[in-house]
Structures are given as C-alpha cells and as structure tokens.
Amino acid sequence: MRFGDVLRNSLVRSFLKVGAMRLLSIPVGLAASIILARALGPEAFGRYAFVMALVPLLALPVAAGLPQLLTRGAARYSQSGRWGLYHGGVRTAHFWVIAVSGVLVVSYFVGGHLVGLWPTVGKWGLLGLAIFMIPLTGLNAVRNGAIKGLGHPALAELPSQLIQPVLVLAALGGVYLSGTLTERTAILSQLAAASVTLIFATYLFLKVSPKRLVQAEYQFGHWFYALLPFTLIGFVSTFNNQVGIVLLGVIGSDESVAAMRVAERGAQFVLLSLSMVNLVISPSIVRAHGSGDKERLQRLSRNSARLSLMVALPIGVLLIGFGKPAISWAFGEDYVSISYVPLAILVCAQIINIFFGSVGQLLSMSGYEKDTLKGQVIAIIVNISLCYILIPQYGAVGASIAVSVGIVTWNMLLAVLVWKRLNIRPTAL
C-alpha cells in the first residue's frame, strides 16, 4: 500500500486527529507531573500517586466496561437505525453510574469512619477526597463510549485527552504559585478539573446525539449480561496497569511508588501510538466483523500495528539511550537512580506490546470479550504473583519486571485467541 493511499484511509485520518490531541496533552501532563514531583518530593509524591492509582480501581464497578459496551452498541444501533435501543442503552448506563457510585461513596465513609473496616488516616485518609472522582469518571465514560460509537472518535477523546489535562495543569499551577500545594490540594485540583470536563463532555454528547424523537427501548437483561464481561475485562486491564503502583504502596515504600510512577510516565510515551490506534479503530472493527469482511479486518489489524510500531520504536530507543538526563531534567536528580532501570524495563515491554497490535480490541469488538478476559486473568495472576515475590527485595525494579512479564503474557495469549477466533494474524508482520 502506497503512503499516499494510507493517508487517505479514514482510520489514519482519525489516528492523526487523536494523535494531535495526544501530542498536545503530553507536555501538559508532563508539566503537571513535574510540578507535583518537584514540589512534593519523592515520598509525598509517592503517597499522592498511590491514592490516584487506587481511584481507577475503586471506579471499576462504575466505569470499567461502559465505554467499550457503549461504543459497540452505538456503532451497531446507528448502523442498523435502531435508535430506540441506543437511547435505552444510554439511559441505562446513566442509571448504573449514579446508583453504583452512590453505593460506593456511602460504603467508603460508613465502612471507614463509622465501622472501622479500613484505615482512614495517613495516605489512606486522602481517599476521602479522591473517592468523589468515581461518579465523575463514570459519567465521563458514558459520554466517551457513546460519542465514539456514533463515529466521532476524535471528538470523544477531546475532553479526557486535552481539556482535562489542561485544566489539571492550570489548577496545579495556581495552587503551586500560591504556596499551598500538598497531596490534598493536588487531589482537589483533580476533582475540579474532572467536574469542568464533565460539563464540556456533556455538551459534546448532546451535540452529536441523534435528535430523532423515538421511544427508548430497554433490554436490561441483555445490557447487564453484556456489561459483565466488559466490566471484568476493564477490571483486569486496569488492575494490570495499576497493580505495580498499588502493591508498592502496600508492601513497598512511598519512594518506590514515586519511582514507579515516573517510570510509567516515561513508558507512556512509547505506548502513545497504540493507545491512539485503539481509540479510533473500535467502530471499524465492529463494522468489518459484522459484514464478515475478514480481509478488511486483517488489513485493519496489520496496518494499525505497523503504524503504531513505526511511531513507538524511535521513542523507545531515545528513552533508553537518554533516559537518565531526561529524568534528571524533568523530575530532578533525586529520581534518576530510582526510576531509570524501571523505565528501561517498561519501555522494552511496551515495544513488545505494540508489536502484537490491538489484540484486545479485535476480540472485544468482535464479540469475543470473554476470550479477552481469559487472557487477562492469566496475565494478572502472573503479574500479582511476581509482584509479591520481587517487590520486597527489589522495590520498583521488581514491580516493573512483574508488570512487564504480565504485559508480554497477555499479548501472547490474546494473539493466539485472535488467530483462533478471527482467523487473522494480529502482529505487525
């Protein structure tokens, strides 16, 4: 395929739009992390990072499976013109978020402050503020999934990929200049930014939603049955992403949490291209599989993996070669000795991840989300087991090894399942 033909492909055009937002968000997010790391120091930054890693885990019952389910549902219903089912699904998702997040918030305060089932002092006490991120996360997830499924992947990602990082940076910058930046005020800044982002995302959601006056149709049993595997996939995926930070916070030191967070920030630069691809190809996978066009599905898989790898490989080489001066310049000399080796390990794992391509998306968007779940469950067992073995002795280095082995295991298992279920080769080859 000629490069000019590739550029005319709608997938790549969407990729470039989302990529532009991601590229703009990188310096914004990096600036926010630099402010926090330098102002708080390794230990306080580690406590903040630990709490913010717990929030996605606590939000799993609310938002873990909603974006993927709504993306698949909206794409199918818009393709077939079944707008009643679309409206019913969106309303059911809103009810789910409000009801479950309310139960979680109330349970946290009752169980912690009244019954004493879990600690509420020290770094654990910060959860009393961060817990309010849960309903905001869930409502933003509903908007993201619906907008993306309606064929606007770039617009769907605008609030979370650009608007919210800019707002977080502005809030943190203001608090820093006022001399009141602490772990608590940093979390309050996150809450303020998430609230304003929700308002903006709601505006976009209402703008692109169909205005057809049709009666909502509800399929509660089917909806919840479909949500369960997506939620479990989201749970396992999120836990795989956060397990290193969380277990370091539980059985390691606050300093090692900070080291792992800095390493993950660097490795995210490598993962940028694949995450952009995953954001835009979901509706295309649904349509290609729905029409039985395996040749198109194979092209979609191969071209997206190659495009991701072409972008990621040079970034990975630069991070490994110049990681130490980059960490020193950005986060400070205190982070170089504790973060560089975990960074190099995670970069190598993410390159392998990108080589395999969008294996999870291929299965989930084709109706084989249970297979995705199987692979991820095995990977998380490997991840957790290695974390418990390696963290006590090796700290952040041990956590990065455990996370990396989990990433490679997950990709290998899902690649086999993609070949088995879809009869296509998912790698960049």
The global form is: globular
Q: Write the H/E string, N to C.
A: HHHHHHHHHHHHHHHH
Termini separation comes to 14 Å
Q: Estimate what percentage of residues fall within beta strands.
A: under 5%
Tally of alpha and pi helices: 16
Number of strands: 0
| Radius of gyration, CA atoms, in whole angstroms | 21 Å
Portion in helices: over 70%
Look at the structure and give the mean pLDDT.
83
List strands and helices in order, with pairings.
Blueprint: H1 3-7, H2 10-58, H3 60-63, H4 66-80, H5 83-115, H6 127-130, H7 133-149, H8 153-177, H9 183-208, H10 220-251, H11 254-290, H12 294-331, H13 336-356, H14 359-364, H15 369-394, H16 396-422
Helix pairs in contact: 2-8, 2-9, 2-10, 2-11, 2-12, 4-5, 4-7, 4-11, 5-7, 7-8, 7-9, 8-9, 10-11, 10-15, 10-16, 11-12, 11-13, 11-16, 12-13, 13-16, 15-16
Q: Could you explain how this protein is built, in words?
A:
Helix content is 85%, strand content 0%. The protein contains 16 helices and no strands. The radius of gyration is 21 Å and the shape is globular.
What's a quick, concise take on this entry?
This protein is mainly alpha-helical and 429 residues long. The protein has 16 helices and no strands. Helix 10 runs antiparallel to helix 11 and helix 11 runs parallel beside helix 16.
